[in-house]
Amino acid sequence: MLTGTVVGAASLLSITQPAVSRTIALLELQLGFSLFLRRGRRLLPTVEAQTLYREIEKVYIGAERIGQVAQDIRFQRAGAIRVATLPALALSIVPRAIYAFLASRPSVTATVHSLPSRQIADLVSTGQFDVGLVEMPISRAAITMEPLQPVDSTVIMPPGHRLAAAQSVRIADLDGERMVMLSQHSYVRYQIDDAFAQVNASANVVVETHNSLVAAGLVAAGVGVSIVSAFTIESFDASKVIARPLEGGLMSRYAIIFPDSATTSSLAKAFATEIEKAMSTE
Fold this sequence. Notes:
Helix content is 40%, strand content 24%. By secondary structure, it is α/β, with parallel strands linked by helices.
């Protein structure tokens, strides 16, 4: 049907001409009607052959589509990925990783949710998300964890604050300062409280929140000073929030988590690679 000749069909199928002729004759015998009229070397399809071919063509197109989908899955060109991330990374690292991830996979889609670490771990462990970005340490069954490189902590303050002129800030400089603090259930908060205790300083905690973006927003509104991951402030205008390095080596530690390794998808692993690239670039 495609080539119009036995010679062409044989070449297309990489078989001999007699094999093509025998196959056509056998099919005509089984069907009970002629498929082609012979005109010299040409084969002219009968009306019955054209009708049959229209149906067969649908099957071939479907089979080719299955093969294409399989190749898309193999080379990560199709599918969907569900990502759960901490707020601290939701407006910085994750968007850049998503952009790089989708750039070479135009048929892949993504869903991104911003949640606290414990909820992320619960949802990933039950397979409701393919990959999660959490604060360490965290312990949960049915997940696989890959630690990321530590991230410096930063002191953020409203414009005009007394510490804005400093090149860096020490914990002792924050003694008695009105503070917007992260939740007491976070490991970063434990580190901060411990750092204050070591220098006999105390923070005047006026607001607590589990969301570092909320903390930055409160600082921008003039509520107080906060200590957050350096990534948190990327989306804030420098005219609204002043950031200074925190001395003392206080770090935020993150990890990528997946459902148990037996069910980790290739797309999730590829996305994790983009997260690692984005972190190292920063």
